[in-house]
Specification:
mainly alpha
């Protein structure tokens, strides 16, 4: 009876790691794929910047050069007279809008952070019902409550103009800020930190001020950008709660562009001036915006 022998497998039969090959289309890692990707990005960038280009070149033209046929042409005579006219008309409301947008962004963010902390980590009976009622405010159309809201503000006795708008924007900013901070605290802030603060004898306010707020920078970046942009670009609340003498820049821009014989160059310059603060906010804080927006989306 012969002993069984084991023959080694040939080297050719040794399994090799499989490499996944693209089934079809262009490989984005290849030079052709990268070129196609960059070409598409450039096309999208040009499409997005086309309106800004028309605004800029039109604002630098004299009155006789402005027309539909030559809107893409560069000005033959460069002038900043339209910018001076637009700035003179918008300067008072420009300063007032900062007085509106900055307090709205800070106050509503602070209230949203407090609400989000209580509703996420410091539970109490009926917390889910309270959170649902707060979120319900996000789905009420502004147009449906504008007249009752104006009557309520009048009965409260708030001065018309910026104080009224600060109050209204803070109230309507609470739901979205609460939602952002609740999701952030519920998924990002470790429970062990809160339990440790309780063991050390810290109450709810001390825990929030000393432990939670130092970890809340990503959430504040998101809510501050959101609320600042919403307050700065708002026109509906502004037209109901203020006027050209005490209102924000959107009303002044509408008055500048909506005259019977509008100066299109000044209107274009005014639109660019109006958009500069929000653009600067996104440039300064934009690098943290996406990270803060996604910080509470996935539980680690």
């Amino acid at each position: 009876m012969s002993a069984s022998t084991i023959t080694p497998a040939p080297e050719a039969s040794i399994s090799k790691p499989l490499t996944r090959r693209p089934r079809g289309g262009i490989n984005r890692r290849s030079p052709l794929g990268r070129a196609a990707t960059y070409a598409l990005l450039v096309i999208f960038l040009v499409i997005v910047l086309m309106p800004a280009y028309v605004l800029l070149v039109t604002s630098l033209k004299s009155g006789r050069e402005i027309g539909v046929n030559g809107q893409w042409n560069l000005p033959t005579e460069w002038t900043f007279a339209s910018w001076e006219k637009a700035w003179t008309a918008l300067r008072p409301s420009f300063i007032r809008t900062f007085e509106l947008a900055i307090p709205v962004a800070l106050i509503s963010s602070a209230l949203g952070a407090a609400n989000g902390f209580v509703l996420s980590r410091w539970r109490f009976p009926g917390a889910d019902v309270v959170f649902t009622l707060i979120l319900f405010g996000m789905f009420i159309p502004y147009q449906a409550v504008m007249i009752p809201l104006r009557q309520i503000v009048h009965e409260i006795g708030l001065p018309p103009g910026i104080p009224t708008l600060v109050f209204v924007h803070c109230v309507y900013g609470i739901p979205i800020c609460t939602l952002i901070f609740r999701n952030y605290y519920a998924t990002t802030v470790p429970v062990e930190l809160i339990e440790a603060s309780r063991v050390d004898g810290a109450g709810m306010l001390r825990t929030f001020a000393s432990v939670i707020l130092p970890l809340s920078a990503p959430g504040f970046v998101v809510t501050i950008i959101w609320q600042f942009t919403s307050a700065w670009n708002d026109y509906l609340f502004a037209i109901f709660m203020s006027n050209t003498r005490n209102g924000p820049i959107t009303i002044a821009l509408n008055a500048l562009a909506g005259a019977q014989s509008p100066d299109y160059a000044a209107a274009m310059a005014g639109a660019l001036i109006t958009s500069l603060p929000t653009l600067l906010v996104y440039i300064v804080l934009g690098r943290w915006f996406i990270g803060g927006l996604m910080a509470g989306s996935v539980k680690s």
